[in-house]
Known about the structure:
Elements: H1 15-31, E1 48-50, H2 82-85, H3 98-107, E2 111-117, E3 123-129, E4 135-138, H4 140-143, E5 148-152, E6 158-167, E7 172-176, E8 186-187, E9 198-203, E10 212-226, E11 237-244, E12 256-258, E13 263-272, E14 285-289, H5 290-303, E15 307-310, E16 315-317, H6 320-325, E17 334-336, H7 349-353, E18 360-364, E19 367-368, H8 374-379, E20 387-394, E21 397-404, E22 406-409
Parallel strand pairs: 8-13
Antiparallel strand pairs: 1-13, 2-3, 2-5, 3-4, 4-7, 5-6, 6-7, 9-10, 9-12, 10-11, 11-14, 12-13, 13-14, 15-22, 16-17, 17-18, 18-19, 18-20, 20-21
Amino acid sequence: MHAGEPTRGRRHRYLVLVTLIIPLVAGCSLNGATGEGRATQPAPTTGVARSQPDTGSAPLEQQQTESTSVPPALTAQPVLSPATERGATVAPAPTAPAELTVLVEKVQPAVVQIISESATSPGTGSGFVFDDDGHILTNNHVVEGGNRISVIFSDGRIARARLVGTDRLTDIAVLQVQLRDLPKVKLGDATKLRVGEPLFAIGSALGLAVPTVTTGVVSALERSEQEPPSGNRPGALLNDLIQTDTAINPGNSGGPLLNLRGEVVGINTLGQRQTQSGVPVQGINYAVSINTARDVSTEILKNGEVTYPFIGVVATFLSPQRSVLEDLPNIRGQHIDADPRTGATFTTPAIKAGLRQGDIITAIDDHPIDDESAFLRILRQYDPSDEVTLSIRRGERSIDVPLTLVERRATE
């Protein structure tokens, strides 16, 4: 028996009262009624996948390591109330907030679809104009290997793009088109983001002609993730990523992730589809921080390429979970996972300094390595040939190790 339901013996006393109340209740339900849409989602793909449309190959599963080195159309089925089924009028569904619709209309003209043609098969992705000279930011993996790159604007214009430069280690590429008076986006500051902050993305999901808008929040900051391999070469370890539940589908790669001020805070890059053990994953996607993209694009425009300081270690962040599972010290830092001499083609700074497998780098010049992106983020503040001091935990001892950085090119 439901709470509040009259007993069988009392029902006749409430017959008249119930008859009067029912029309009032039905009226209240109709005034607040809205339709709900429900659609079947496509099956997840494997591992962490770049958000680039399927060109015939299956998505690649990837593992978390660190080295310095179209579904069918979906039909929404409204859920109708009994009153609606009887032909009653239902209030229209609420529209999206005016602020978001205005932002989308303002930003969308600067977002482009990119088609990269190669000897094997064409790939499509997204990008956005970011300055007055026709420069476009996108992902390196969108244009990698392409011998002809075309850009399609929201107003229908098509332009051939010149590849200005790329950086494989951050998955950033800069293109340029010879068009005047192009709309451009405003670049924001990803360091001001807070977990839980609303975001939205625009891009050519599934290669559709009309850009798609999705919404979500900042799920986490300063994340690291390994990209899928490219041919025989392992994927780059991307750092300082924004994790979001904003949907990032194939074709969204290279498109903007924006805050509610209409500023680009990230470049949509990866989507997690399942765990290494095959468990489906939902709502875990990654964008390269716009701060990283701004620094990289500035160096590309200035020098045509990006160079990095290099130590010569294969290392991963020592998290509390890893400390428990591998019975390692409960300290934060970068754990050197392999002998620095293994696979080295020259005497690296790590070899010269005597770094060992099992060493934990806890700081660089007293800058603590306290999250999974900190090691490379701190290292990139230096220039090749700079001298630094590493704080090392070796067994039960804490030692300081000086070394001189060397240059590593992003193409190496």
